[in-house]
Every structure is written in C-alpha cells, then in structure tokens.
Amino acid sequence: MRTLVVLPTYNEAESIRAMVERVRRSVPDADLLIVDDGSPDGTGAIADDLAAIDERVSVRHRAAKSGLGSAYLLGFGIAVEQGYDAVVEIDADGSHDPAELPAMLAMLDKRGADLVIGSRWVDGGSVVDWPWARRAISQSGNRYAKWMLRSSIHDLTAGFRAYRTAALRGLDRAVVSSQGYCFQVELAWRVERAGGVVIEHPITFVERTTGRSKMGPAIVAEALVRVTGWGVASWFGRGPAHAAAREA
To answer: Where are the domains of the chain?
Structure first.
C-alpha cells in the first residue's frame, strides 16, 4: 500500500534524527511527513536537513504550537489529496517502535481493516518504565471511555495507528472537534461507529528517554469532560459518532 507516515513534532531535537532513521528502515517504501509546530529547540531545522538528503521525507512548518489533532488532520488531508492508500500516526519521541509498522500495514492490506491501533491494553501489549500512577490513569481512563462510548476498543487513547485513507475522507476541523490528545479517542470512535473495521495490534510502549512529555493534568481533564459529553449525547442519538454513522 502506498503509505504516508505523519510525524508531528514540538521540541524533539534530541530524538527526531533517530526516529526518522528507524521509520525509514522499517518501511523503506513509505513517505514521511514531519509537521513541526515552530519548535524553539531547532527541531524544524533538523527536519529540513533530513528532507534535503532523503526525497521520501518532507516537512511542513507551522508558526506556533497548534495541537496534535490539527497536525494529524493536516497530514491526513495531504494523504487523501495525494492518493495515498494508508496514513500512519506515530510519536516522534521513540515511544512507538516503527518495526511494528509492516505488520500493522499488512492488517490494512490483507485483513481489510480501516484502522489498526498499536494497543498497550490488549493481550500481548505492555508499557515499559511507567510509574504505577500513570499506568492506572491510562488503564482506568480507557476503561471509562470504552464504557461511556459503548466502544469495543480497549486502547482508545493510543497514538500509534495506521488508517486506510478511505476511512478518513470528509474529516476536518469542522467534523473532528478535539485538537488535543482527546483527538485520538474521537477519531477511533468515529471510525468504529461509522462501521469501519478496527483491529488492535499488541505493542510494547516504551517511555521516552529524551525531551519532555506533553501529557499533563489539563489533557486528562479535557478527555474526561469530552468523553462524558459525547457519551451522554450518544445515548440520546446525538453527538459526533452518530453524525459519522449517518454520513457513512
């Protein structure tokens, strides 16, 4: 499948070179798009250097930090416009292992999936170097979202994914309301409720060893409020998932 890997960055100067090398080694036929949000640490300049020596790497620069969701929506739009069959979400900090990508893309190609999620919370999945508190927050948050949204997905917040681009047509900021990490929950839920085939592929998530995590209390609070609102709305036949189902 013709594939575009989207790599959003903000202050990832310490990890971006190694991550691009790992992605290119794992899926050498894929193209890679770095979306940098005006990183003050020079990430954007490093990305430009990488693009200058590798025709499969390209860069989009944004003036300021504009959110993970909007970075991915930019990449998704490019993937659709340029006729890619698949588009990948992956973190730039090294937490996700690009070596899993061939298996994930094969599930799109051979098993007819619309979305393959690199899942920490299914049999065979795991996390490394997480304190018990963060593990508990992630697990309980995913359980709550799964129950509230009546979803069958165990890891709704996962950020390592491969989509069939056909499943993303028509999605833009007017449709996807979240721009933070809650974007992951909303988009997976939309694909699922629109009738898409979702497969969870077990992965090992490794805590970043360089840079600083973007996760914080405000992100957790946003997800809690939005998921609760979506769940309540869906019980009355409203909300983004039902809109997606009607449009499909």
So the answer is: 3-247
Confirm if 241 and 186 have CB atoms less than 8 A apart. Answer: no
Whole-number Å distance between alpha carbons of 197 and 186 = 16
pTM here is 0.88
- According to CATH, the topology of domain 3-247 is Spore Coat Polysaccharide Biosynthesis Protein SpsA; Chain A (3.90.550)
Report in angstroms the alpha-carbon separations of 173 from 69, 140, 157, 178.
Answer: 9, 28, 19, 8
3-state secondary structure 82-136: CCCCEEEECCCCCCCCHHHHHHHHHHHHHCCCCEEEEECCCCCCEEECCCHHHHH
Report the distance separating Cα 24 and Cα 61, nearest Å. 21
Burial, 97: exposed, middle or buried (Cβ in 10 Å; 0-12, 13-18, 19+)? Answer: middle
Q: What is the pLDDT of residue 180?
A: 66
Distance from C-alpha of 160 to C-alpha of 98, rounded to nearest angstrom: 9
Tell me how far apart the alpha carbons of residues 155 and 146 are, in angstroms, rounded to a whole number.
8
